[in-house]
Every structure is written in C-alpha cells, then in structure tokens.
Design brief:
This protein is α+β, with helices and mostly antiparallel strands and about 160 residues long. The protein has one domain: Roll (Pnp Oxidase, Chain A). The protein contains 4 helices and 9 strands; from the N terminus they run H-H-E-E-E-E-H-E-E-H-E-E-E. Strands 1, 2, 3, 4, 5, 6, 7, 8 and 9 form a 9-stranded antiparallel β-sheet that branches. A hairpin with a 2-residue loop joins strand 3 and strand 4. The chain is globular and about 50 Å long.
C-alpha cells in the first residue's frame, strides 16, 4: 500500500482501545444494524463531497460498498482519499474519524466473504473498497450538555 496506511487490523494491534471505540461507534445503533457513517471524498474540482454509507469490518479490513454509477465512486477511483465519520450516537458524547486511501477490491474471491459479512444489502453492481487508515481522531466530551463541556482528543497516525 502506498505511503504508511494500514489496515483496520493493524490499528487494532497498535491502538486496541481506540479501534474498539471506533468499532463501537461504527456499529452504534446495535448489532443487528449495519454500520452507519458519512464518507467524505474529493470531487474533480477539488471540492468536498459527503455521502451516507454502510461501512463494515471484516477479517482485519474496513470496507464500504459503493453504487457503480455514484459520484463517490468516481471520486475514489480518481483521487482515492477519503474521510469516514460514524453517524452521531444516541448520546453524541464521543466521535471517531479516520482518513487515508481507499482501494477498490476487484477480486471476486476476496469480495464474496466480505459481502456475506455485511448487514446491509449489497447489490451485484456495487464496487467494494477497502479503506486503509493513515490518521484517526477520537473525541470524547467531558461534562456533556453543561457549560463545562470540554473535548478530550486521542490522535493516532500510521507513521
């Protein structure tokens, strides 16, 4: 993989508590609900684009399926950079954000078990991307909903 980006499994090895919080927030609406997040990409004019997606974790990887003719697919194929932020939780007292390069997974033998693990419905024309990780930011809010509100940041980089 270009640069120093790592797979989700390496984040789990190097920063297990941070990866566990990320997993909990990705699946924050319960075990029977798909992962829910916003995926940010970069348009051809270098402007931002934001999309709701259903990411999933499988066998050490963080993945997302993208509709074949979606503008976000063109963005990922052209530029490759992404930012992923899970939907706010019920209490919204913490958040998780990761960035890095996205790479299409074109091998059908690799795709099948990942697709089978997803809780969301996957259409045959959707393209699978693995989201590699370069940076993570976890924010926990102390004293939520009070004047003493204070963010506590945990940062991680793959370098």
């Amino acid at each position: 993989m270009p640069g120093l980006a790592v797979r989700w499994g390496e984040l789990e090895e190097k920063a297990p508590a941070l990866a566990e919080r990320g997993r909990a927030l990705l699946y924050g609406f319960g075990p029977a609900v798909p992962g829910l997040a916003f995926l940010a990409t970069t348009r051809a004019d270098r402007g931002p684009r934001l999309h709701p997606v259903c990411p999933g974790l499988h066998d050490g990887g963080l993945y997302v399926f993208v509709v074949a003719h979606s503008p976000k697919r063109a963005d990922l194929d052209r530029d490759g950079r992404y930012a992923l932020h899970p939907f706010p939780g019920r209490d919204d007292d913490e958040s998780f954000y990761c960035t890095g390069p996205a790479r299409a997974v074109l091998d059908p033998a690799r795709r099948r078990p990942i697709e089978a693990s997803f809780l969301s419905q996957v259409r045959p024309d959707e393209v699978l991307y693995e989201l590699w990780i370069e940076r993570v930011l976890h924010t926990r809010w102390e004293n939520p909903r009070t004047p003493q509100l204070r963010p506590v940041y945990t940062r991680w980089t793959s370098s």
